[in-house]
């Protein structure tokens, strides 16, 4: 052979041509050797396993397992003979119509996809065969790198080398992800239709065959219209390929499907909304799609306290009317770190996996006011700064007028202090303050509290007319609870691969002091006033309905609009926010509907602090406490009916004693000014011996 080739080469008189032929022959020889080597090496490794046990596991804060993408032993592996023939035909038709005719790679399809990708200058078509997809799901990540592509090709070769087409298809149908935690056709069939895979009819099979392309996107439980269009595409493709007749296509397309009831579906046992949020966060951290993470073998250490989660769910269930369509979003956070300890995104995860704690944005109402009053403290306000509470019309820059009102039209018709304005949630005081300080400054202040969404710089912003999430509010209140340090709610402490290698670890180093420590402490103490009836004025304090139920000293602020009810509050150890309302912004007309948020919050906070000592907020240096008469804002005397400890930066505290409740205020008119002054002077001397203001 060698001599013959040499002889033939000598017949080529052109030297460049002769070199080109030699190079071509050598290249072909090397290619043949390479292919033989690859096949030999693949064969030497033997058949790869047809199952994968790479489960992603979620751990709570105390290292207990809170969720797991279970292994194949619980995914109902079934033989191909026990899977409906309609499923087999539909899957092959839409995923890989040449499956039985290629050796693992559909080169014609690859060329077509490459042409369309080049034409569109983007990856618009995929060309993976069923065998390639199976190899990827079993052994590899879904990262788009050349290394992964080469490994995928190698595993595909091994699968095709050692297994029949039916064995490969059986493995594929038993491992592919159909969404909602259902791996494999049997699990999917039970989840969606409450029947075995062998009993699926053509319409049902086409529906399920359409889901793996995008389990979240094509699930009929997420979008029935989109799932229906996908089903019709598959039926049409099957008819065009001759797998079904036009009559069968028509009947299947016209069939009304009967899905399982929500209560009958398999659900996650612990904190399903939390687990979903973790999964989405993982996708950002690891830069992988959600379906890849589910079977990636990751060990995910989360911030969830299972005890807090159970108590939060119990509080919601015990409080809300089971017959009501009212929804709820709630979250609890450790203010020092930002670790989310509990999360509820709705009344029923099975009926609606939409997370109202992280995804829904609603008007917070008066619960937004603490951000305004921090700004006020920065601009010289104190707990006793007084403004007139009465109906007021504000003229805006554009010439329009704005006339806010108080709850139920109640007003003091006299000056009230900042302490009372917070406790009673006086809207006139808030808008006056916002207008005086400038709405743009409130937007800037909200940014300091971690509110990143675009906010309108208008007077009504003081009343919480912009939309935010429960997560936003809990994050902002955490900065009040921790003394003004930067904090952002987070879900994941650490992620490792199946071998324990750390892939991600939460960074706790960013604890910058963003807010003034003294003003933040003063604000936290002002926010305890909503539970203190010594601050009652023209109406009761807003937390009066739950004040007697509270087992510890808490701070907080409620908020109410026509469509939303909020309660956000905290101790030094825990911040909790609760929102209730209707998904479609339906008005809440019943009194008890507006009470749910407060009742849920009070119930949970009591349970979460059960058995713990009452931890007080640490008073910074430079802050003094003074007993104050809530009505006058002056230092209280023994003759004051009510008195409350209020806090001030040293040098800004009131220095005069209450003039309204002095004994001389009730003296007879016949007392001469000289006699009144004498009594007053003596009274002042006696007061000097009392330890007020220390």
From TrEMBL:
Residues 65-239 form the Glycosyl transferase family domain. It catalyses: [GlcNAc-(1->4)-Mur2Ac(oyl-L-Ala-gamma-D-Glu-L-Lys-D-Ala-D-Ala)](n)-di-trans,octa-cis-undecaprenyl diphosphate + beta-D-GlcNAc-(1->4)-Mur2Ac(oyl-L-Ala-gamma-D-Glu-L-Lys-D-Ala-D-Ala)-di-trans,octa-cis-undecaprenyl diphosphate = [GlcNAc-(1->4)-Mur2Ac(oyl-L-Ala-gamma-D-Glu-L-Lys-D-Ala-D-Ala)](n+1)-di-trans,octa-cis-undecaprenyl diphosphate + di-trans,octa-cis-undecaprenyl diphosphate + H(+); Preferential cleavage: (Ac)2-L-Lys-D-Ala-|-D-Ala. Also transpeptidation of peptidyl-alanyl moieties that are N-acyl substituents of D-alanine. The chain crosses the membrane at residues 21-43. It is found in: Cell membrane. One of its GO terms (biological process) is peptidoglycan biosynthetic process. Keywords: Carboxypeptidase, Cell membrane, Cell shape, Cell wall biogenesis/degradation, Glycosyltransferase, Hydrolase, Membrane, Multifunctional enzyme, Peptidoglycan synthesis, Protease, Transferase, Transmembrane, Transmembrane helix. GO terms for molecular function: penicillin binding; peptidoglycan glycosyltransferase activity; serine-type D-Ala-D-Ala carboxypeptidase activity. Residues 330-598 form the Penicillin-binding protein transpeptidase domain. It holds the Pfam family Transgly. GO terms for cellular component: outer membrane-bounded periplasmic space; plasma membrane. The keyword Plastid does not apply. The keyword ATP-binding does not apply. In the C-terminal section; belongs to the transpeptidase family. In the N-terminal section; belongs to the glycosyltransferase 51 family. It comes from Radiobacillus deserti. InterPro entries: Beta-lactam/transpept-like, Glyco_trans_51, Glycosyltr_51/Transpeptidase, Lysozyme-like_dom_sf, PBP_transglycosylase, PCN-bd_Tpept. This is PBP1A family penicillin-binding protein.
